[in-house]
């Protein structure tokens, strides 16, 4: 996590403290120190840093605090996930998913996992993402509906929650081709 090192022990000295202030984001370091109890820490402990060794620098980390365009961010999604904004979004998403599962579980629902690859179009559409699956056509799933219906016959109250793919062409960025959907 960024900004985790807040102080250095006397042994490390001012030199190491100054050094860390000039490290680029995503620089890899080895931090050595002594773990001590500290009631001021929310964890109850702190690391009294005695040494810091730079293992690998990060010169060209592309995600910075400045604003970036959507295309750039989508091309660097694996790094974008670590930005403050995406971090906050994922924490909110995680809480929504947790609360959703809690609701369904408390009300006697069983979660059914439907496959992501299917052999046909469940909603009768021709707009599917198609791929070759060992010599046979396969499609990215548009819905877990068929599996939910079968699961309902076995368990009664069921729900699916998973990725959904739509290959519908659009002239706007607001049309999602991939999203997560709950189907009770």
Folded structure, characterized:
This protein has 184 residues and is an alpha+beta fold. The protein is built from five helices and eight strands, in the order H-E-E-H-H-H-E-E-E-E-H-E-E. The protein has helices at 13-21, 70-75, 77-80, 84-106, 145-155, and strands spanning 28-37, 45-56, 110-111, 117-118, 130-133, 136-140, 158-165, 178-183. Strands 3-7-8 form a three-stranded mixed β-sheet, with helices on one face. Strand 1 (28-37) and strand 2 (45-56) form a beta hairpin. The longest helix has 23 residues, at 84-106. The model has no long low-confidence stretch (mean pLDDT 82).
Concise summary:
The protein is an alpha+beta fold. The protein contains five helices and eight strands, in the order αββαααββββαββ.
Largest sheet: 3 strands, mixed
Order of helices and strands: HEEHHHEEEEHEE
> Could you tell me the radius of gyration in angstroms?
24 Å
Within the largest sheet, what's the order of strands? Answer: 3-7-8
The helix/strand class is alpha+beta
Distance N terminus to C terminus?
37 Å
Strand composition percent: 25-35%
Mean pLDDT: 82
What is the assembly state of the chains in this entry?
A: single chain
Low-confidence stretches: none
